[in-house]
Design brief:
Order of helices and strands: HHHEEEHEEEEEEEEEHHEEEEEEEEEHHE
Helix content: 10-25%
Shape: elongated
Strand content: 25-35%
Number of helices: 8
Oligomer: single chain
Length: 418
């Protein structure tokens, strides 16, 4: 808990958050709302502005080539599988592919495609024309991630009816020399089909992506041509079943790799997220602040949700304001560093005017009573003391408790310890 508390004077810069396609600013000009000494630079983007979607789709229109002259077998496979392959836009500079795996809009892709983003855009394949329209783009939430196997599970918000999806194959059906097929968006050439052979099946294979994290999983080595933009897209067998997620390539010709279907099955069955080991500089980064709520109906966001250890909703850190242009009156957070968010058991308050000195009120057992008060100067704990008798967490976090109870913060699983 001490690491979790002490790390919180390195707040991330709060950036404007946009609801995809609606063009509404959710947290406008939040930088001015947090004291400068409580900010640190962050390049993580947690949504895709409408202008970026439009510009990207416009560029892709001229590249889109629908199915034409292929072998009869290849044409049938492409026509069956391609509608279940999506184009993924994440943040400001990441694009990739994804595979729809359920009628309710679950999408499997690579973790390195979505990165730190908690919301992404998925674009569905057009049926009869080469024009990618805005209506084909849908918001999706990142449900869970596995950094070790480089996998992420998305869920499309309000997916269309009769959504095409792929079924999972089995690892036991894979053989060296077997024909395999890939569909993705290499270099922005959307819904590109390639085919090849399984060169080898490698258990517990280790590799690194540009993030610098070490990954390992069972992988399928193929000479099926893939390039940047294919990441997260499906590797298919002759029956159009998903047997892998195309993930990376090595130096040399024909050294392409997909995370195998057995690793995908383990990821889908596993609860929660799996994190790769991170450097100290990564673990001490500030929170990503992406959600703003006008809980008092005053025309500005008085409570702002941020993500520190949590990688999927709900946020585990909340800034609470009483006036529009002032510093937060307190910060409410979940002290658990596992990423599983369900409680608010720590309240941090400013002592003075600039957050250089702060006090943390800690409810160690979440029984609703503060157990210890810790004092911090410039992020370093300098002392601790016992609280007054029966000091309740709910008395320190009235605003956020009220907002949760009346549904103005839409997370029923989150509560203030009481």
């Amino acid at each position: 808990m001490i690491r979790r508390i002490a790390g919180f004077l390195a707040f991330a810069t709060l950036t404007s958050f946009w609801i995809p396609f609606l063009g509404e600013s959710l947290c406008a000009d939040l930088d001015a709302r947090i004291p400068k000494n409580a900010q640190s630079k962050s390049k993580a983007a947690d949504a895709v502005p409408t202008a970026r979607i439009a510009n990207t789709l416009q560029k892709l229109n001229k590249n889109l080539v629908l199915e034409s002259t292929r072998g009869e077998k290849d044409i049938a496979l492409f026509q069956k599988a391609a509608p279940a392959v999506v184009f993924v836009l994440a943040g400001t500079d990441s694009v990739g592919s994804g595979a729809i795996i359920s009628a309710d809009g679950k999408v499997i892709t690579n973790w390195h495609v979505v990165g730190a983003n908690l919301r992404v855009i998925v674009v569905l394949k057009p049926k009869d024309s080469a024009e990618l329209k805005k209506e084909l783009a849908f918001s999706a939430t990142v449900e869970k991630v596995d950094q070790i196997a480089d996998l992420a599970l998305l869920r499309i918000t309000s997916p269309p009816r009769s959504l095409s999806f792929l079924t999972l194959g089995t690892a036991s059906s894979l053989s060296i020399g077997q024909d395999v097929h890939a569909i993705g968006h290499p270099q922005g050439e959307v819904w590109t089909y390639t085919r090849g052979l399984i060169s080898q099946i490698r258990a517990n294979y280790e590799w690194k992506t540009e993030s610098g994290l070490a990954h390992h999983a069972n992988v399928i080595q193929t000479q099926t041509p893939i390039n940047p933009g294919n990441s997260g897209g499906p590797l298919l067998d002759d029956g159009a079943k998903l047997i892998g997620i195309n993930s990376f390539k090595a130096g040399g010709e024909g050294l392409n790799y997909a995370v195998s279907v057995d690793a995908i099955g383990e990821f889908l069955a596993r609860e929660g997220n799996r994190q790769a080991a991170q450097s100290q500089s990564q673990t001490t980064r500030g929170p990503r602040c992406t959600e703003g709520y006008d809980t008092m109906r005053r025309g500005w966001n008085d409570i702002i949700g941020c993500y520190q250890d949590s990688v999927s909703p709900p946020p585990d850190v909340w800034f609470v304001f009483r006036t529009r242009d002032k510093n937060p009156i307190y910060i409410a957070m979940d002290s658990d560093t596992s990423g599983k968010v369900g409680k608010i058991d720590l309240i941090r308050k400013n002592v003075g005017s600039d957050w250089k000195i702060a006090e943390a009120y800690v409810d160690a057992d979440c029984d609703g009573t503060v157990d210890v008060i810790e004092k911090y100067i410039d992020g370093e704990r300098v002392s601790s003391r016992l609280p007054p008798p029966n000091l309740r967490v709910i008395s320190l976090a009235k605003e956020i408790n009220t907002a949760l109870n009346n549904g103005r913060i839409p997370y029923r699983e989150l509560r203030v310890c009481q």
